[in-house]
Structure formats: structure tokens, C-alpha cells
Amino acid sequence: MKRIFAILSAVLLTTTLWAQSPEKMSYQAVVRDAIDNLVTNTDVSMQISILQSSTDGTAVYVETQTPSTNANGLVAIEIGNGTEVTGDFTIIDWAHDTYFIKTETDPSGGTDYTITGTSQLLSVPYALHAKTAETITGTITETDPVFGSSIASGITEADTA
What we know:
Elements: H1 2-19, E1 25-30, E2 45-52, E3 58-65, E4 74-79, E5 83-87, E6 99-106, E7 115-120, H2 125-130, H3 145-148
């Protein structure tokens, strides 16, 4: 009985995790110090804010992360996977408005964010392609054999009240 429960739990958990798209975004940056030298192989601190409407708009989400730079000064993080300060990344209504990403970095790993940048979040090619799902061209032919043999297949608009 315990074995069956464990198998069912594993199947349900796997199905649930597989069906969900990740609630995060990839972000990369090269970190340089005040005199434009690369900050390499160092733990840095970052605060990431998602701003609504403009570069100085309301922060709908803020998180902090402490990534390490590589030999080229590059940090790679997943926004939505850090320590949440305010807001909830999973409930941002991306269709509601324009959004901007503000990054603040402390190359020494503390909270004295001396490097700041803000830029608008723009569409990625696969998101632009997804807009084609908004319209259908041509005709749709029902090919479901179960529906075709059902009593319901003969119901017309006139049959409904």
C-alpha cells in the first residue's frame, strides 16, 4: 500500500511540475568597478526591480541575489529565483502595461549598490510568434470520432435555449 501511494505521489508531482512553465527570466550582465575594470571571480550583490510604466515607475517586484562573476566579469541569474523583497513575480500582469528592469549592483558583495541601470523589457521572438494564436485563418474541421458518434453531435444552435 505504501509503495502504491509513493508511486502515485511521484506521478502526480511529476505531472504537476512538468505542466507548469517557469516563473522566471534569464538575465546576464558584465560587472565593472568604478574605474571600468572587470570584476572577476567575485561574489557580488544585486537588487533587481521590475518597474511599471516608466524608468522611474512603481516597483511591482523587487528581489536580491548574490551571484558570482566568472573570469570575464559575467553574472548570470534567473529573475524570480532570488530573495523576494517586495511583490510577487508570479502575479505580474505582463499584458497590463509596459515594464522596465532596474538592476543595482554592489561589486563588493554588500548593499551599497553603486552600479545602476534601467531598461525596458521588450518582446522576445517566440512571444511575438505566439501572437499568431490570436487569429485563425481557414476553416476548422471536427475530426473527433467520439464526438461524431455522440448524440450531442446533432445538436444545433436552434436546439439551445
